Queue: 4 jobs
Job 1
Amino acid sequence: MDPRAEPPADEKQRFYAAVEPRWKEVATALAADRPPEWEGYRFEAEIVQTAVAGPFRVQVSFGDRVSNRQRGGAPKEIVDKVAELQMAYAVFWQPMAWKKVVIEQIWDREKRSWTFETRWEY
């Protein structure tokens, strides 16, 4: 199979199912690291290429969703997991290698529980 060719839909579904628990692990680790006074969090990770088709670094921001207070970044273990996920997407199929991911922890007042939202930019 041509590595540039789009994988079949069933292969993509299997890939998404395989990485979903890893994304949940990242979101849960961020929630555990969130200061108790924060009202949820907003985590952004952007892939910054350091060379053409070469290595990259992950630039992150991690802050309170409501007050916009920022932390000096996320723990290294979490950033490393995000980098591993980005590499998994790129290896599976390069066009799926996202450039930015935003994970938010949001308090649902009606349900009185936390929810997570994740968005990717390609």
Job 2
Amino acid sequence: MKALLIYFLLFAFWAENVYRISFSDIRGFSLTNMSMYFVLVAWLLEAGRRHKLFLSNNLHTPIVLTTFMAFTSILIKLVIGEIPTSLLKESLDLINWSIPLLVFLAVFNTLNKESTCYLSLAGLLVLLAATTITPLVAALGNIELPGVRSAGWRIGGFGNVNVYAVYLVMFMPLLFSLGLLGQRSWIRGAAWVLFAVSMISLLRTGSRSGVISFVFAMFTYLIIVRKMYPTRLIIVGIVSLSIIASVAVVALPSQVKGVFAERLNPQGAEDVYEYTSGRTQIWKNGLLLFLDSPIYGHGQNTFLPLNTKRFQLGFSAHNAYLTYMVEQGLIGLSIFVFLLSRIFSHLLRQLRSSPNRFALLVYAGYLAGFCGYAVAMLAGNVATPRYIFWIYTAVVYKLTYITTESNSSVASALDAGQ
């Protein structure tokens, strides 16, 4: 039953972001929000059963601090008054911003079985398959879908093509992990096929930052598992990755290959500004804005309007860390980095201590994807995949706590028997 709730969350995300299906035009009653309400109810029922609302995890403190800082930055924005706004608008924006974090808490506190966690992960991979296959089929059939973004030869499964590339990078190391060491042959086969399709989709986005973050994620994966797996298996993985990447490049239309090769070649641009599509100027502007208020920032959602107002350049930061620096200052950036470091350190400890072989595949895949996601935030926005990121994180996090408790129970039983 709980896995079905996660599936509904994922279906709502897919329906709204690909087909623009809406349950209601009333704010707060979208299909995504309705699916979230069901999970919240399940959370409350589960909390009533165990007489405890929050189960312990190491992200509660940074999540509270992050939310408090977001609320504080709204007050700062209102007090400074650089950008005209209202308390009502900012309050609604804060609620919308906090939804992914609330979903994390709801999913983490609702799931209670290892099998349900694996079923939820399967649902996330089915969503990945749907969002990779749909735009490719649409491109081949010349079909227009409301949520599928295309800019010439560049195609994204939802939203901005660079944003979609970040989403792909999150899950591709997990597919690679399952392809190498999945427990059953059909799991390995399905993982390799989806990995190859995802690779083609990543190249079709034409996202340079996506390709860089993918390379970093896969390099991280190989570093993580170098002592866990035999050298022979690592070599097999590298060879498989090379073959799939080569096949994906060959499978691209000739026009796409030529244009993408030009985008990757820095010599094809006159200068760094052109090669980065103007990002260097945006980042320079962001640093100047940051220096104006380095401690507590200018307030929530001020980067774009301030960049437009002061520099006549109507673009967002294309860098999540710089966004925090400008909008929440060093305090907000420190809290954000603290949150990310907690996730990284927790999964790294699980990799070093968990005896559960299949869970280790998941942890290695998640951690590598997380590192790719963190690198991608240096050159892109993560608004849309942020929702999926927190569902993915909640499922993997709950799996770590369930398997740890299970292993502790087995160890206690063995000690008692002796």
Job 3
Amino acid sequence: MNNELELVKINAGNLRDHHFEAIHDLLSSGNANLACVSILRRIADMSGSTSSFITISLFNEAGNDSNVFTSASTGPFFPVVQNKPDVVETLANFGWVNLHQNYSQKLPNVEAFTNQTFYGYPLFDQLGRLSGSFAVIVSSPVSIQTIEEECSMLLGLLVHRVQEFQLLKRTLPQTPLNEVLQIAKRGVIFPSLSDMYSQSAHTINGQLAVASLQSQILTNPDITDETLNLGLTRISSAIAQTGLLLHRQENAFTLLTDQSKVSDLSYSVQMAKTSFDILMTNKVPSVLHMDVSKHTMIDVPGNVAYWMFHNVLRMVGSIYQWIPGPEKAIEIYATTVTESLSSQTYTEIRVHVPFNSAILEISQTLFNLNASYFSGEPLANLGAILFGIMSMVNFKWGVESTEKEIIIRAEIPNAPSNE
């Protein structure tokens, strides 16, 4: 028992790294199953649990929960399930019948597994509907405390991520307007770089096709000087555009694979703005003002910095695009500041939005973090989860307003100079 308690304490001391690595896993996962497996393994590592199990169902067009959308398990106690009846039967074998309510049951001793307790938690989506079940078997109260206090944010992120895999297959015109507005209000969907990759690749193919077509035209012996010059100009432009797009894809790939402890501020913000501009469903213009050194390093891995900046922009844009208002661009500012009582430097990020009372009200709700993701309350929006995780590493967030604009402000610690 003492060894297990010590294991949990050691893991709890690395919560910052665990959360950052979990974000990396979710960004890198290509499908819902990989996302579920990576988070379950992360939770097992953080808590020292014996076995864990998760299943997430999504909702069809009629609003009814579908068959099992994805599931995963770790350890020796849970089987792999493929459908809803198997889920219900598996959990009922442990005595958990009412899947809308939390449940716990001490298990009989089995061979080397003694003092094991089963815990079951319902998972709710951002509209308050039961969307899945999370179960875990532990032998220490410290393990379950770690899960409830620290791992709940990872489960919230996972549900958002799995929902994204489904919603990417559905276009907004097929989604009821009230649900679209609810999603915009409750939170934003985890940004997927796959759309950015595919759109960029499609554009690259188009530019290469232009260059190829122009090259064929130039082989015509009867071509005029005017057509020749125009063709050469188009080929040169297509090659230049292809180079820019390839560089953008290389940058995005680097963000996903970089596991260093620090990242370049300008690089991360620029990539976040690029993906934001590409992926917004309804165009929301944005202007970036960088008043920092090009080599300012912040104390956050690159993939997490991208995730943070992108989601702050997506959070603002998801509200702004649905509320009628002035057609004015979102202004993004980055400035380096120094605390007067210490030598610690911070990067201040501000997002300025034209004032609208409805936007202000919704923006303020995006900072309200639910006390627990295991309750019957709707899942906390992704903005609140973002702020909750970042507050663990000394990030400072807030919303303020004037008569003309709403300002979302964040202070991010810069990396120590010896990094």
Job 4
Amino acid sequence: MANSAKMSRRRFIFLGLLSLITALFGSFYFYDFDTVLFKIIKKDLAYLKLSNQQIETFVLDAKKENHWERKFFDWKKQYFMRVGFMIVSFWNSFPYYYKYNQYKSELVGDFLLSTDFFMNRMDVDADITYVALYNPYKRACSNPFSNLYYPGA
């Protein structure tokens, strides 16, 4: 009797893990990096007045100009972010959680630098407008942290 209970427990654990893996990779299959990037920005900047169109334009411009490849955000990091996003959707932590947060902060920071958020002195009550992809070589004179925007600070 005890032996059959062990077998059913093993079978239950096996089927549970199999269904978890299937659900994780099944939903992962439907999320490409652009969708994950959109959802990360939307979730992290929920406290700002930001339209979906602004985020979509940023994602499309970044894809069109190969922005992530030029910033050394290659396919491995993109894959890691996709898997990390799926894991964080279920659990708040996993072995490389701090690396995930570092990459997530880099992505959200790129978006904020591409908007007028810093030009408006980081006013969270103002509407955020997407300007263009932040590239210091194309906008060499633009320094969002300049004292021109923060007089007396």
